[in-house]
């Protein structure tokens, strides 16, 4: 019975897989009738995810029978280790996936996160569409630069900002994987609040700003950021460097806040706000809140 549910969930998503996209969520927990189990496909390599430390024998048998490289990640806020190899050939080092025709570097050996968040696929496509040429796009909390690559592919000049030098180097590689010269763009290491204030003093303006922070983080000086407490200030600072006619994409996966509460926090005076739905392969819960402010 479970095998049929899993097969059905995978079959429903077949149309998402195209020549330009080979990474998606294949199974999404209760949304596909399998509570507590999710499965993501990264260019044919599978990542199973559970909130606890067990996978049922029926699910294990189904995963093993697939013949795929299968890894397992425990969705535990205290678990920071890389996913565990379960079945099939081991994946040695980084590899590439495709999304909307763009190439991104992924690794199953990089710790808790693999290099890209698949729930942002629609938003990255929208950023690429909006960057028709010549725009200046600022990507805060950039991680490995997915939004920056999408913006640059659309023709924009991207400024990529993150606390981690490791992730900024990863972002530069993602530019090069797509045949783009990373030296033609900007990479800033440091705190988003600091850089936004600095940009404002310099009189710099951006046509688009992406704000997708972790729900909780601590900067190099020990200052704590919490979405529910600090996102409003962050959006206000970003508004000071937003050019006329510009837009902001504000995102959070913080579950203890409603869509309306988040919109109220990020909407700037005189600007409109539009909510973006999650990709269709994420069927269990609309946890990602995405608001386009323009």
Mind sketching the topology for me?
Layout: H1 2-12, E1 23-28, E2 38-42, E3 45-50, H2 57-65, E4 70-74, E5 84-87, E6 95-99, E7 102-106, H3 121-130, E8 136-140, H4 146-154, E9 157-162, H5 165-177, E10 186-189, H6 192-202, E11 206-211, E12 216-218, E13 224-226, H7 227-240, E14 242-252, H8 259-266, E15 273-275, E16 289-293
Parallel strand pairs: 3-4, 8-9, 8-11, 9-10, 11-14
Antiparallel strand pairs: 1-2, 2-3, 4-5, 6-7, 12-13, 14-16, 15-16
Main features:
294 residues; Rossmann fold; seven-stranded mixed β-sheet; five-stranded mixed β-sheet; SAM-dep_methyl-trfase
Can you give a write-up of this model?
- The protein is an alpha/beta fold and 294 residues long.
- It folds into 2 domains: 98 residues, Transcription Regulator spoIIAA (2-Layer Sandwich); 177 residues, Vaccinia Virus protein VP39 (Rossmann fold).
- The strands form 4 sheets. It has a 7-stranded mixed sheet, with helices on both faces. A 5-stranded mixed sheet has the order 1-2-3-4-5, covered by helices on one side.
- Helix 5 links the parallel strand 9 and strand 10.
- The mean pLDDT is 95.
Strand order of the largest sheet: 10-9-8-11-14-16-15
The residue-averaged pLDDT reads: 95
CA radius of gyration is 19 Å
Q: Could you estimate the helical fraction of the residues in percent?
A: 25-40%
Strand content: 25-35%
Counting structural domains, the number is 2
CATH homologous superfamily of the largest domain?
Answer: Vaccinia Virus protein VP39
| Helix/strand structural class | alpha/beta
Tally of individual helices:
8
Which CATH class of the largest domain applies here?
Alpha Beta
The biggest sheet amounts to: 7 strands, mixed
- CATH architecture heading of the largest domain: 3-Layer(aba) Sandwich
Fill in the CATH topology of the largest domain. Answer: Rossmann fold
For the termini, the CA-CA separation is: 48 Å
Number of strands: 16
| Low-pLDDT windows of residues | none
Shape: globular
SSE order, as H and E? HEEEHEEEEHEHEHEHEEEHEHEE
Pfam families: Methyltrans_SAM
InterPro entries: SAM-dep_methyl-trfase, SAM-dependent_MTases_sf
GO molecular function: methyltransferase activity
Enzyme class: transferase
């Amino acid at each position: 019975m479970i095998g049929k549910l899993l097969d059905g969930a995978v079959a429903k998503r077949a149309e998402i897989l195209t020549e330009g996209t080979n990474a998606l969520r294949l199974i999404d927990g209760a949304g596909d009738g399998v509570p507590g189990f999710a499965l993501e496909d990264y260019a044919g390599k599978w990542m199973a995810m559970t909130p606890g430390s067990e996978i049922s024998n029926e699910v294990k048998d189904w995963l093993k029978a697939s013949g795929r490289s299968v890894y397992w990640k425990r969705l535990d806020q205290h678990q920071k280790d890389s996913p565990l190899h379960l079945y099939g050939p081991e994946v040695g080092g980084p590899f590439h996936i495709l999304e909307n025709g763009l190439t991104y570097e992924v690794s199953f050996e990089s710790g808790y996160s693999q290099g890209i968040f698949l729930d942002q696929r629609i938003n990255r496509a929208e950023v690429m569409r909006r960057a028709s040429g010549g725009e200046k796009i600022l990507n805060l909390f950039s991680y490995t630069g997915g939004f920056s690559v999408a913006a640059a592919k659309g023709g924009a000049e991207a400024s990529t900002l993150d606390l981690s030098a490791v992730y900024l180097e990863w972002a530069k590689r993602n530019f090069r994987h797509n045949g783009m010269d990373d030296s033609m763009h900007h990479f800033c290491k440091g705190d988003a609040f600091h850089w936004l204030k600095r940009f404002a003093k310099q009189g710099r303006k951006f046509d688009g700003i992406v704000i997708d922070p972790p729900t909780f983080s601590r900067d190099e000086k020990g200052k704590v950021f919490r979405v529910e407490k600090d996102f409003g200030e962050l959006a206000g600072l970003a508004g000071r460097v937003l050019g006329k006619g510009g837009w902001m994409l504000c995102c959070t996966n913080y579950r203890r806040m409603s869509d309306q509460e988040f919109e109220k926090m990020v909407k700037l005076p005189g600007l409109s706000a539009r909510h973006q739905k999650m990709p269709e392969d994420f069927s269990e819960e609309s946890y990602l809140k995405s608001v386009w402010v323009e």
